[in-house]
Amino acid sequence: MPISKRNRTVTLSKTKKKGKEHKEAIVNAIKQALEDYASAYVFTFENMRNQRFKEFREQHKSTGRFFLGSNKVMQIALGRSVADEVKPGIHKLSKFLRGDAGLLCTNLAKEEVQRFQEYEEHDFARTGSIATEKVEIKEGPLDQFTHEMEPYLRKQGLPVRLNKGIVELVSDFVVCEKGMPLSPESARTLRLLGIKMATFRLHLVCCWTPEDFEIYNEELDLSDIE
C-alpha cells in the first residue's frame, strides 16, 4: 500500500528559518571585509536579477565584496551610532541602508567604483513593473507563432484565430501603455514578443573611507546624519 504523503516525516532542519547563527555570520563577514578593504559604499539597485548580479559580482570579486540581505543586519555590522560603530564615521552608512540597498567593500579607487553605474543589463519586465513604452500589435498574421500557440495567446487576451493554420490577430491590440503597471498577461506577452523593458543597474548612494564620507545623491534627507 502506498505511503501517504500526509504522514511523511519531515526533518526539522529542512524547515528551519535563517536564525541567529546565519545573522552573526553575515555581521562577522562584513566586519572582516571592513578590515580587508579600504572603502565602503551603499548602493541601490533597479530591477534586480539574481543571475545578472551574480555575474557582475563575479567580475569584481578580486577587488571587493558585495553584501545584500537584511538592512538591519548590515546596520548592526556597521554600527548605528558613534557609540557602536566599528570604524570612525562608518555608522553614517547605516542611515542609507533602507529599501532596495546593498553594501560594497572595495579597494578600488572612487572613479572606478563610480563606473559601476554605467553597467546595464536588459531583461524582461515582471508583473507590476512600469511599462517604458506603448506596445501595440497590428491586425494581421502573427507569423512568429505556430498554430499550437493560438490557445495560449487567446488566454493572454489577444483577439486571435487560426486562418488556414496561421495565427491571425483579428484587430489591433494594445499590449501595454507607457507609464502603466504591467499585468501578468502583458508581462507574458512582452516576453513572447522578445521585448525587454527592465534594465538592471546600480546607483551609488554614499561612500565611506577612513578620511571622509561622501554622499552622491543630494536629494536624500540628510537631517539625521551626524
From TrEMBL:
Keyword tRNA-binding: no
Gene Ontology CC: one annotated term: nucleolus
Record Pfam families: Ribosomal_L10 (PF00466), RL10P_insert (PF17777)
Alphabetical GO biological process terms: ribosomal large subunit assembly
Keywords assigned: Cytoplasm, Nucleus, Ribosome biogenesis
Gene3D superfamilies per UniProt: 3.30.70.1730, 3.90.105.20
Intracellular or extracellular location(s): Cytoplasm; Nucleus, Nucleolus
Record has Plastid as a keyword: no
Primary location class: cytoplasm
Domain annotation Large ribosomal subunit protein uL10-like insertion: ranges: 125-195
Top-level taxon of origin: Eukaryota
Family to which the UniProt record says this protein belongs: Belongs to the universal ribosomal protein uL10 family.
Function: Component of the ribosome assembly machinery. Nuclear paralog of the ribosomal protein P0, it binds pre-60S subunits at an early stage of assembly in the nucleolus, and is replaced by P0 in cytoplasmic pre-60S subunits and mature 80S ribosomes.
Complex and partners: Associates with the pre-60S ribosomal particle.
Protein name per UniProt: Ribosome assembly factor mrt4
